[in-house]
Design goal:
homodimer; D-amino Acid Aminotransferase, Chain A, domain 1; Dna Ligase, domain 1; 4 domains; six-stranded antiparallel beta sheet; globular
Chain lengths: ~350, ~350
């Protein structure tokens, strides 16, 4: 930990998710490091403390983790066995390997969600064109997915015949087949879960994918019936809890004529949550940083947020000295709110924080 | 400039203003550097590119400026003659030395404002207890101010007698006397001005100082009559324009029974504008970064902002490659706004930005 009592959070991966997390860490007063593959990566350009190395190298990961209080991830490409080795060597890995494996193995994810009673598209592992043909029950097209390593539409094929399936199988990648779902639209439910199990849900959003890439997000999803919105949020909170997710979980869903189906999971900040920087009081990046650490580290925040979730805290990362400005708090009201009550809320929060700091907690 | 066409902005000074500017630069896609006196300064903890050196050393400043497209400031303590040397050596200094000198020399500032017809407290330079006694016209207390180098209430003395004045004069600091203003409250008017002269005003705020330090800010100032608010904003815009300020200008004001009086100027992000991070679409730190550069650098932003000031742009700092995600835009509506029109605004902005990027402008 740093001299200010704030944790050192390390993020493996130097993409734009890590970049936006770096911006969030500044306001939270957390010390932030990234493990990037090069100095020109999006987050490496703006983060104070950049380690250059590979997420696929255990020595690089171990060296990086040695200078962090907790590590978390910008993507899901770190091999599970490395995550387990880091965890057993004493590194705080958030989310933990037991949760993250479900983002790396789509077959395990689908199987586990089905066990939990979560609605998912029909699926089966396949290793031959005959397997695929049997799976279709005569109904083409069918979706083939790489069990591991796909992202942004890569590793997903819609095939219309046994011959097309054979062509995909010839790549030698472990595959699963999935029914082709004629969905109305795609939705995403994002939730944050703390290390001690508290959960919070963002409004459910509509996402528009173009060529497998998220092009547009509308929050909240227009015209989504309240019961479906609640079902999606409850589903996401239940999945987060059942899989032991710490930090952010994004659940990508199909809205279909037979209800909601879970498509993908991401246990990190997600495309579908970028709107929260500008449209929510606490962004997904802040939630991820707050969720990814031990509960005792953020005592002061937790105190203030429990007392008044509408207060925005900004820390300057400074060591405590008498009379020194260490941060500020903001309360934003709406037209017509009494100014006195807004000011009282800000004063109460500042007093909590100052007391915490003065007593050296 | 960087490969993405975004400028390298250097801020002299590593305090919390630079820290919050670093966070703003991340979203704007600007490359940000700070010149800090030590690695433990607030901004040095979170900025990727930190130079260690002194703002009072011309060699340190020149070395720092050589790696920046434009330099700006977290405080007003860089000697004017160094700023002039940097500018004549070709460094883009924003705000320029001709403007900044008014934040470093309170006597010059008061004199210039009086010439401009701006209401200020009665003042005069003093060098003896007799000067002070003559200035008071028999009415104590009177305020003595260090002409240079004061901040946060330091360098300001309220004296009640010639003996007290003599004690302050004995410090050997160049002083001016100022009438003691029995103000109702303190206000601040913050404006941003671009290099080509466009200006924008934030709502006028009420500030509460305790022991010379800004303790509370209420935006907008409660109960401020509309005509006074407009007068304060117009005053600030006029001062920014007359003094040639680029970037942020904060004008600290006294609200008195005889109207508004200008107390202090700051040509940088300011305590009284921290609320804009959470309470305004574009924060004072973003405005300062946008204002501090040549107009042609931010063509894309200017285009989008002119077309729709309600769009929030986030760049990831990545080099352009076909199919690569380079950023995102957000439009936040209010309850009842038609979703289609919000989406159209976001699409239009994204299209402008993409077009600009694709054509390599």
């Amino acid at each position: 930990m740093t001299g200010t009592g704030m944790p050192i959070v390390g993020m493996v991966g130097g993409g734009q998710l890590a970049r936006m997390t770096a911006a969030a860490a500044i306001g939270l007063g957390a010390t932030f490091r990234v493990l990037a593959t090069s100095n020109s990566e999006s987050a490496a350009l703006v983060t104070h403390d950049v380690a250059i190395g590979s997420h696929a190298s255990l020595p690089d990961l171990s060296k990086f983790a040695a200078h962090c209080d907790v590590i978390t991830f910008d993507h899901e490409h770190v091999p599970t066995e490395y995550l387990e080795e880091l965890a057993s060597a004493g590194t705080l890995v958030r989310p933990g390997p037991a949760a993250l494996r479900y983002t790396q193995d789509k077959l395990a994810m689908r199987t586990r969600l089905e066990e939990l009673g979560v609605p998912v598209p029909r699926f089966a592992p396949v290793s031959s064109a005959a397997d695929v043909t049997e799976f279709t029950q005569g109904k083409w097209p069918v979706v083939l997915k790489a069990i591991s390593g796909g992202y942004d539409g890569k590793g997903v094929w819609v095939v219309h015949s046994a011959a097309e399936a054979a062509e995909v199988l010839s790549h030698g990648v472990a595959l699963m087949a999935e029914e082709f779902v004629p969905f109305r639209r795609e939705l995403a439910a994002q939730v944050a879960r703390s290390a001690c199990g508290q959960g919070a849900a963002y409004p459910v959003v509509e996402t528009v994918q173009v060529d497998g890439i998220c092009r547009e997000v509308i929050a909240p999803a227009p015209g989504l019936p309240a019961d479906l919105a609640i079902e999606a949020q409850e589903l996401a909170l239940r999945i987060a809890s059942s899989l032991g997710v710490t930090g952010l979980l994004a659940v990508e869903l199909f809205e279909t004529s037979r209800g909601l189906l879970v498509n993908e999971l991401a246990m990190r900040p997600h495309n579908s949550g970028h709107w929260t920087i500008d449209g929510a009081l606490t962004s997904q990046f802040e939630q991820h940083l707050l969720g990814g650490t031990d509960p005792d580290i953020y005592d002061r925040y937790i105190h203030v947020m429990a007392a008044d979730p509408g207060v925005k805290v900004h820390f300057y990362g400074k060591e405590v000295r008498p009379g020194r400005k260490l941060g500020h708090v903001t309360v934003v009201g709406r037209p017509g709110d009494p100014v006195d009550s807004l000011r009282d809320r800000a004063r109460r929060a500042a007093s909590y924080l100052r007391w915490g700091i003065e007593d050296g907690n």
